[in-house]
UniProtKB/TrEMBL annotation:
Residues 6-144 form the Nucleoside phosphorylase domain. It comes from the Bacteria. It comes from Haemophilus influenzae HK1212. This is Uridine phosphorylase. It catalyses: uridine + phosphate = alpha-D-ribose 1-phosphate + uracil.
Length: 153
């Protein structure tokens, strides 16, 4: 709703600035991640483009976020994010009320680690797909609040 209505008012650039959980062992709590593209594990982005359409951040937004981090003396990690609709099963979290993760989601964490995905979060694939399909610009930067190879939240 927000992107659609702000675009109608003339906004053309959207930045997701937030938190995330790292899934690579070398990324630490407190590190900064800049997302170049997202694995589309969501449902909403399908309303804007077919699954074959990539969820890619705008190059100018990504470059600006990178340059801003460097100007502050921060060495950000730059790469691919996995973006899921859900915090628990979609991110293969077993620390839930039921303790269950359905078969389709079991093993995904390891798969994304093996494919060098940096982190899990819940917004970027929809934001990137929607903005790109509508001719808008989007970027994402997030601070790491947990490393899932070391602990859960």
């Amino acid at each position: 709703i927000c992107v659609e209505e702000l675009a109608q008012l003339g906004v053309r650039t959207f930045l997701r600035i937030g938190t995330t959980g790292a899934i690579q062992p070398h990324i630490n709590v407190g590190d900064v991640l800049i997302t170049t593209a997202s694995v589309r594990l969501d449902g909403a982005s399908r309303h804007f483009a077919p699954l074959e359409y990539p969820a890619v951040a705008n190059f100018e937004c990504t470059t600006a976020l990178y340059n801003a981090a460097k100007a502050k003396g921060i060495e950000p990690y730059v790469g691919v994010t996995a973006s899921s609709d859900t915090f628990y099963p979609g991110q293969e979290r077993y620390d839930t009320y039921s303790g269950k993760v359905y078969r389709d989601y079991q093993g995904l964490l390891k798969q994304w680690q093996d494919l060098n995905v940096m982190n899990y979060e819940m917004e970027s694939s929809t934001l990137f797909t929607m903005c790109s399909a509508l001719g808008l610009r989007a970027g994402m930067v997030a601070g790491v609040i947990v490393n899932r190879t070391q602990q859960e939240i």
